[in-house]
Amino acid sequence: MPATNDAEAAFARYVLPEVDVLYRAALSITRNRPDAEDLVQDTMLRAFRSIERFDGRHPRAWLLTIMRNAQINRVRRRRPGLLADPDEFADRDAGMADDAAGPEQVVMGRQFDSVVEDAYLALPEKFREVIDLVDLAALSYDQAAAVLEVPQGTVMSRLHRGRKRIREALADAGVQRGVRP
Q1: Per-residue three-class SS string for the chain
Q2: Bigger pLDDT: 166 or 1?
Q3: Entry pTM
């Protein structure tokens, strides 16, 4: 049974510290909490099954690669789910504004969030993946490149182009950085 104890120790060392990052990444991918929780659980199960083959280098990138592949498999199995209502996420979270915020901040916060979310969702998948990994999951360019299996320069280019499109959408909507209404 020493192999089981080694696997459990490796899991505790490499996987458990990354659960919060996995959940944030899963939530950004799935857009709803139950699916994000299922995706994290699936990722952790797959990680546990293969922890003995993991070399200990870049655990976050390794786990996010597992998550990405798990999500691809989930989407393939549920093709009809692609036609789900895209407004479901926005409707569910609409009532979650901070009670301490004044009406002006609530309205502007919702407008800003809505514009950012719409711009993000309008991005091609290759830009969203990079933004998810670098901006939301806090991976380095090198780690994101390893997860996506592309050169680091491609990650940097896609990140720049994706962020630029979001900034342009904010400017088009009249929401400017650092300017309060």
Answers
A1: CHHHHHHHHHHHHHHHHHHHHHHHHHHHHHCCHHHHHHHHHHHHHHHHHHHHHCCCCCHHHHHHHHHHHHHHHHHHHCHHHHHCCCCHHHHHHCCCCCCCCCHHHHHHHHHHHHHHHHHHHHCCHHHHHHHHHHHHCCCCHHHHHHHHCCCHHHHHHHHHHHHHHHHHHHHHCCCCCCCCC
A2: 166
A3: 0.51
